[in-house]
What we know:
The structure holds 2 protein chains of 2 kinds. In chain A, 47% of the residues lie in helices and 6% in strands. By secondary structure, chain A is mainly alpha-helical. Chain A has a single domain, classed as Orthogonal Bundle (Ribonucleotide Reductase, subunit A), CATH 1.10.620.20. Chain A has a 3-stranded antiparallel β-sheet. A two-stranded antiparallel ribbon of chain A has the order 3-4. The relative contact order of chain A is 0.13. Chain B has helices at residues 26-30, 79-83, 104-113, 234-240, 277-289, 314-318, 342-348, 350-358, 372-386, 391-400, and strands spanning 10-15, 36-38, 43-45, 67-72, 141-150, 160-166, 179-182, 197-200, 214-220, 247-254, 267-273, 299-305, 326-331, 362-368, 404-408. In chain B, the strands form 4 sheets. A 6-stranded antiparallel β-sheet of chain B has the order 8-7-10-5-6-9. In chain B, strands 13-12-11-14-15 form a 5-stranded parallel β-sheet, sandwiched between helices. A two-stranded antiparallel sheet of chain B has the order 1-4. Chain B is globular. In chain B, 39% of the residues are buried. The chains are: A mainly alpha, B alpha/beta. The interface between A and B is medium-sized, with 30 and 25 residues.
Amino acid sequence: MSIDYSQKIPNNVDLSSDKTLQRALEHWQPNYLQWWAEMGPTGSTNFDVYLRTAVSVEPDGWAHFGYVKMPEYRWGIFLAPAEKERKVNFGEHKGEPAWQEVPGEHRANLRRIIVAQGDTEPASVEQQRHLGLTAPSLYDMRNLFQVNVEEGRHLWAMVYLLHRYFGRDGREEAEAMLERRSGDADNPRILGAFNEKTPDWLSFYMFTYFTDRDGKFQLCALAESGFDPLSRTTRFMLTEEAHHMFVGESGVSRVIQRTCEVMREHKADDPAKVRTLGVIDLPTIQRYLNFHFSVTIDLFGADQSSNAANFYSAGLKGRFEETKQNDDHQLKNDSYKILELQGDRLVEKEVPALTSLNERLRDDYIRDSIAGIERWNRVIDKHGIPFRLKAPHKAFNRKIGTFAGVKVSPDGRVVSEAEWNANVRNWLPNDEDRAFVASLMGRVVEPGKFAHWIAPPAVGINRQPVNFEYVRFN
Amino acid sequence: MDAAVQTVEVIRQHLIDPEICIRCNTCEDTCPIGAITHDARNYVVKADVCNACNACIPPCPTGAIDNWRQVVKARAYSIEEQFAWDALPPQEDLPVGAGAELPPEVARVTAEAAAGQGGAVAPPWSAAHPYVNLYTLDSPAIATVSGNFRLTGDDASSDIRHIVLDFGATAFPVLEGQTIGIIPPGTDDNGRPHHVRLYSVASPRDGERPRYNNLSLTVKRVTEDHDGRPVRGVASNYLCDLRKGDQVKVVGPYGTSFLMPNHPGSSLLMVCTGTGSAPMRAMTERRRRRIGLKEGGELMLFFGARAPGELPYFGPLMKLPKDFIDINLAFSRLPGKPKQYVQDLIRARAADVARLIRDDDCYIYICGLKGMEKGVDEALRDVCRMHGMDWDELLPLLREKRRYHVETY
């Protein structure tokens, strides 16, 4: 299935056969471009960026590389190929044919799910808009811009669903997505983590590692949806999402690598000394990790949630790898263990599986995140440095769910307000940390050169050499 | 059986670099035949399932997917071994005779070209030792064009050229029958560097001009694909348009099998079409330069083209003494004449062909388009039947005696 690039809006959904929809989206398109001009990467309009553009959703078609000016990027609407005779695979409707149109009774819930997902996409572009000014290399700048244009495309994917299946309500929601602003006091983005700042590149890598991985898990859960167009669109988004997590995982890994190289070279292990050598000390990296990890796991929502149960029973949002699970896919009699605060202790408690689906997705996410942290530790091990990065306890620094407001240390002890206050500067990035990391930021534009605080990547993009001119400034 | 003839089967094993992979599952999702799997640590490829279709390569966000090791098939890395890796293993030394590590594209093209002889065949026992892979994609040799001449007539439909490359002070030793790789400059539609293209050397080991450090290639300008659809061959057009003094990036040399015998009294039975004549020209010229040594042996050539004007080296070929080489030319597009192919002439000369097949000192070389293989095979089968031999029994013996060499593309 190739993508029709002759149209104003590239698509593989035969848009031209539905004139009303086509007109509605063509009406939304200039507003989107206006939003990109206002809130997209600062000062990048005229750059030629070596970007990947999908020309079909088949394996050989969606990674075409070439220089593109970002405002001219071919944002479009791409669905993964339809699966023949796909069924609803879980919940009350299990076994029925997957829905090609929105079932009336699930309309409000589906719209809510799609809006929540869609809102994160432009939000992250807004959060990252100034980072191009301090990119540590052309390679990294290119990766940032790739992430940005693909988040833009993911917005298109959600807006398509809103326009195509939700009528006037959907069109209004699509407009509102261009009106909310990350961090805006009056009209903020819907989810907390998407109103935080991404002020420096360490934050950016942590964000793409942790928060885009939340995206992966949400998209995986939606890819199981009984609403087939949502499933197909999220399946294709997942292929693009992988690049974003790569930017995060390899980015943090390269920061660690450089720090370790410098520590070993200068036989320095005192964080203050390490900072004077112009690299980010490992404890600071740990504090950034604690912050992004805890803020991100809040995104999964309350640990007990009747909404999540309803979404599941209705067949709208599945579990991670739903179809690979060996159970009845209805969870009516199953239970799940969650953590609960009893006095000053965190204890396990058995609760119905159906209302615990947020927690379960969060736990799946945590397992996946920790595996990557272990790969970072291997970089440290290789340099023979006795330091290990660790994911904080899942009750640490939570704002949503049972642990909201409870003071828990990164190692999972419930602590007093006083102990929290005495230690928080060691647990979360403090002003000095942020100021120090900010002081390292500065744009490096010579091909093949990298800022002092980060190691070059092992390989370039699309088999190009690392010193390839990934961005041309004109 | 001669121990060295036992071929060790070497495969290109597809592996994923665990240090670069981010475990995003894209490859496993993409693989059309379920060759990729994972555990809690690593994503791995099943060597016995992967067919190197490359569907997983472009979607991989990291580049971790694009790793290959040449391994002896029986000792391919199992998925259990791969699960335990923190890093990829280095390329291990292969057993002698299993071949040096060639660039993947070269390994693939040479394997396809030799498919017609039924897999790897060792060179004649008296072949000189070839150098291979002296220049790699990372460090190619630079040659200078010292000549580029059209071989086909002005009215011919194809543009076949004789291109001479001079290596100056760079050592680039080749034997007749070996190939070299050319890297066209620039990038393809996807912005990647072009693949290397292989060409048979058309000149003998001591140079296009004796004692000069040069060699020649026979290159046909590609203007259509195998099915006749118009297409512009990247490398062939690049080469055909080269001018004297231009510099060319060359890798190789490659080829350890399609080599000529060197012992006195050895004969060559050569069958070729079009630019498949390049190695035949090299071998013939090698023999011609040594005529004075009176080493004996016969040369018999079957050479097919559309018309004399389309036949590369037609003029020089016609000037060779009849008692030096027995030339049989087949033309398939002569006005007013029935179409004639090399296999027709092989049948017509059955008695002499059969005599040479029986001669253990005669070595057989077939080179040209894939399409000629079947016809030649059937003709040789007929020749055998007419003369009381069984081709199916004979062929394995010919291979074992290193007497049967096929290179088709």
